[in-house]
Amino acid sequence: MSHKNLWDKRAYQQKYYALHREKLIAASKEYHAREMIENPERVRARVRAAKKRYAERHPERVLEQARRTMQRRREKDPVGYLNVARAWRAKNKERVAKYERAKEAKVQADPIKLAARYENRRQYRIKNAAKVRATKSLYKARRRIKSRTADSSCSAVQWMARCALYGWRCAYCWFDLNKMTVQMDHVVPLAKGGSNWPSNLVPACGKCNMRKNARVWIPKLPLLSVGG
Ligand SMILES: [Zn+2]
């Protein structure tokens, strides 16, 4: 079949398609179904390329669609949505950081936004005065303990020696312990001026450690059987 010009060829194709429409659609369907099975990678690559072309041509449509999808998910399952969002952020830390930096730069460059932020924070502090005070004093106490105990420490070897000294028993109830169950207890708690030196550390069971909390208990060295 020869064609005088492009127009003829196109008209012929259109006529051919109209005549064999059903057959052509069926053949195309069959071809794509087979491709999905035989060349899934190629199909995926093609879909990816098509999506990319579409996104380049209509960036605002793609953004709007993504926004709508997220909105729908959030409405349908608020908790699940939060988890998905959290997982995504954990996986795309650098992207999130870049986005946050850009957002922060925008705020810093806009005096109105900056003023609004200060006002919001002021309102929060007024509304949650007790909470803010508690957090502040907690941080202060932590900082004090940290600076006071900065030079005291106990190495892993020293800690093992402390456990051995107590015969791998709880220093308060003599419950048998092992590396998995032992807990490190500060005889004089850090909050009460204790240190991280080995001499202030004893092995304890979880129960005693929890009950003791910030109190000072006198550890009892177990009477280790000598000889036997
Ligand atoms: Zn105990």
Give the key terms.
about 230 residues, mainly alpha, elongated, binds zinc ion, DNA Binding (I), subunit A, 10 helices, two-stranded antiparallel sheet, single chain, about 5% strand
General form: elongated
**First CA to last CA: what distance?**
109 Å
Mean of residue pLDDT? 90
Percentage of residues assigned to helices:
55-70%
CATH class of the domain at 152-225: Mainly Alpha
What is the number of helices? Answer: 10
The largest sheet is: 2 strands, antiparallel
- Class from helix and strand fractions: mainly alpha
Q: Any guess at the CATH architecture of the domain at 152-225? A: Orthogonal Bundle
- The CATH topology of the domain at 152-225 comes to DNA Binding (I), subunit A
Chemical compounds bound to the protein: zinc ion
> How are strands sequenced across the largest beta sheet?
1-2
Estimated radius of gyration: 35 Å
Low-confidence stretches: none
- The tally of strands reads 2
Instruction: Give the H and E element order.
Output: HHHHHHHHHEEH
Report the portion of residues in β strands: under 5%
* Quaternary status: single chain
